[in-house]
Design goal:
Number of helices: 0
Strand order of the largest sheet: 2-10-9-4-5-6
Strand content: over 45%
Radius of gyration: 13 Å
Largest sheet: 6 strands, mixed
Length: 117
């Protein structure tokens, strides 16, 4: 299993970012997929999940109304559109299979999102 996140960066509050995750090594189409995030010293938390079909994704309370998860089964990728970012969204973001618990023990390097004035 290989997971490679990208798209993070440093932005100001209210701005947007789009994260991407390229996967390989497993039958992507057969897995629901999720985004997670982690702040140093805290447990990793689930952010958003999308079923195999891509229909009716689900979101944690922190993501509802601001984030949108999508997937491309042809390219084995998922994305996370993040709008109206807040300083509390600052974290390392990861993708993994499953929802809401991760399917794989292996994690990618993550992509850092920093939101500050």
């Amino acid at each position: 299993v290989e997971l490679a996140e990208s798209g993070g960066g440093s932005v100001q509050p209210g701005e947007s970012l789009r994260l991407s995750c390229v996967t390989s090594g497993f039958p992507f189409f057969a897995y629901p997929m999720s985004w997670y995030r982690q702040v140093p010293g805290k447990a990793r938390e689930w952010v958003a999940g999308i079923p195999r079909s891509g229909i009716d994704p689900t979101y944690s309370e922190i993501a509802k109304g601001r984030f949108s998860i999508s997937r491309d089964n042809e390219r084995s990728t998922i994305s996370l559109q993040m709008n109206n970012l807040k300083p509390e969204d600052t974290a390392m973001y990861y993708c993994n299979g499953g929802y809401p618990n991760p399917s794989f023990n292996r994690w990618g390097p993550g992509t850092q999102v920093t939101v500050s004035p």
